[in-house]
Amino acid sequence: MDVSLLNDEIRLEPDVPTELLVDVVNTADVIDVVQLDLTGAPGATSHLESTPTLFPGERRRLPLRVRLPAQMPAGRHELAVRVRPTATDKSREAALTVDVDPKPAMVVGVHPSVRKAGRRTVFPLTVANRGNTPLLVQPRLVEVPDGVGVSFEPNEFTLQPWQTGRSLIRVRGPRNLVGAALEHPLDLRVTAFSVTPGQPLLQQELNRDLQLTYRQKARYSTWLLFSIGLVVMLTIWCVLAYLGMKRFVEASAVPLKLAPGLAGQGRLDEEVPRDVSITISGTVLSKFDGSPVAGVTVLACDAEDPQLRPRRNALSGRAFRPRCERGGQKLDRHSREVDRSGKAVEQDVSAADGTWWIENISPGKYWLTFDSPHARDLQTPSYWYTYSCTLAQQVPSRPGEYRLAVRTSEDLVGERVRVVATPSTKTTSTPVPTATEAVETDPQCPDAREPLDETPAAPTPSAVPGNQREQMTSHLETSSRRAVLVALPPADGNPGPLPEGTGRPVTERPRDGAQDEALAEPDLTGAATATLHLKGLQVPGRYDLTIQVGGRTMLVRDVPVQPGKNRGVTTYRFSPADDEAVR
User: Fold this and answer.
1) Which has the closest alpha carbon to 491: 256, 268, 255?
2) Which of 213, 320, 376, 391 has the fewest Cβ atoms within 10 angstroms?
3) Cα–Cα distance measured from residue 250 to residue 246, given in angstroms and rounded to the nearest whole number
4) Rounded to an integer, what is the distance from CA 510 to the centroid of its chain?
5) Domains 2-100 and 106-216 fall in the same CATH topology
6) Residue 553 pairs with which residues in a beta bridge?
7) Closest CA to 470 of 288, 287, 290, 284
């Protein structure tokens, strides 16, 4: 079987059917049926309209219809037409040279084409090569609004036939802080150049136009600004309401102020702070017989006061021990000494039963000073409690300064602690240390029932009479109540000699008729103390107080009185000395 082509060089287009004329001669001695096909082009198809039958020695020209695949690359290719007889297994081929024409094609798309974002956004550009030649793709800008920047990544790439590539379109808009969204239309063009190997003159250009929409949102939306403005307005209203309520409370509760003549004898603070709620109490006893001692001035000084820090004289080098007094007294101008006294923030004078109260002080650390002309006769065992479930003990065994830590919390109620001190059970004349045992009674504290024992390093000043058992109580209370009328010590902190009429009733009569009587009893120091309670001062105002001690009368004029929240009960405690009374 012989085969030949009428034209062995032809030009074909991809995916376009073409007819070839093939001459076939049957050289066999038998009748044979032949089959024709095209080889060398994967995906190519061939078709004969009928199945030819050739007799021995017969020649016939057969039309063969062929179609090249669309992916067939452009350029020259060597193919063959093959003849396969049915009677024998021997096939014959005829060479065919085919020039494939370039057929570039490109598909471009952006999805999504509309985006709503902030100042920056990205559009994905997809390019597909649907032709038979490589494409050099270059995306370009056509028209964009002012202030909008566009960049491509990458800005140029090559695609082989029937391949897909991607480029990122990065868009950056102008500043848009507040307001509505800005809409930016973007016109782009994708240009591709086809390249045919061996045929540079066959280069073609493909263009595809795209239109994108970039909706730029404002950085701060209208609802966000409205919410912020509403919150700011509510905050301002709350602050103004708080300040107004605070001013109203301050104006509605005016603290008691003494007349100018008694200002030096009164409290050291002009008004009582509203957030204080600490009360410290104690007892002053005589070291000889354990009896209460009246007229002892108790001063509370702030431990953080720089004047209370130990210092040394720059000239002599001698250390000065800080003193807690009513206020630093100026020394003589010729003296080289520097006043190291710390100013007391609160004070009190022990009553006839030896008790004293330091009221309405803020939480903090304090030094306590017990001052008396007969200080050597004092024995001041005391105890203080803190609300941190920790027992803080300070047991003074001698007159002087003692540091006290006071802390509190408004959500805790007041607690009372009983302290029992047993100085000695034997009769002795030698100094004996004082042992103090304290048991806290709050069941909520984990360490409440653990007794603490503290023995001072320094012994007591002198022996305590044998077989004497002393019991002292003290307390620290928290409360939101505010004391309007308070107790004040005498001017010099030391009661003077008892005026004539010792032991007679002491009567205090304000002009509205309220009065009370008490017996001023002398103590070991030679001073007498009486405590009077005036009931009936229901109307705020100014009063003249008359105090009679024996045959002598003292007058305190123009005292402003504000009952406040204590139901009109006004308490005066004084020690008459040199015609001076203290409230």
Assistant:
1) 268
2) 376
3) 6
4) 56
5) yes
6) 548
7) 290
Eight-state DSSP code of residue 512: T
Q: What percentage of the chain carries pLDDT values higher than 70?
A: 49
Angle at 122 between CA 119 and CA 127, to 5 degrees: 155
Q: Give the separation between CA 262 and CA 196, rounded to whole angstroms.
A: 116
What amino acid is encoded at 519 in this protein? L
Q: Which CATH architecture has domain 2-100?
A: Sandwich (2.60)
How many Å apart are CA 372 and CA 73, to the nearest integer? 119
Measure the CA–CA gap between 330 and 345, rounded to whole angstroms.
19
Given a cut of 60, is residue 545 above it in pLDDT?
yes
Rounded Cα distance between 300 and 534, Å, is 27
Round to whole Å and give the CA distance between 484 and 253: 9
pTM value?
0.38
Confidence of residue 205 (pLDDT cuts 50, 70, 90): confident
* Phi then psi dihedrals of residue 245, to 5 deg: -65, -40
Name the pairing type of β-strands 323-325 and 341-349.
parallel
- What's the pLDDT band for 522 if we cut at 50, 70, 90? low
Pairing of strands 114-117, 205-216: parallel
Q: Where are the domains of the chain?
A: 2-100, 106-216, 273-477, 487-574
107, 93 in Cβ contact below 8 A? no
**For residue range 28-47, what is the model confidence (pLDDT) as tens digits?**
888 888 888 888 888 888 88
Query: Which tokens hold the place of 167?
Result: 């480029």
For domain 106-216, which architecture applies?
Answer: Sandwich (2.60)
3-state secondary structure of 369: strand
Confidence of residue 529 (pLDDT cuts 50, 70, 90): low
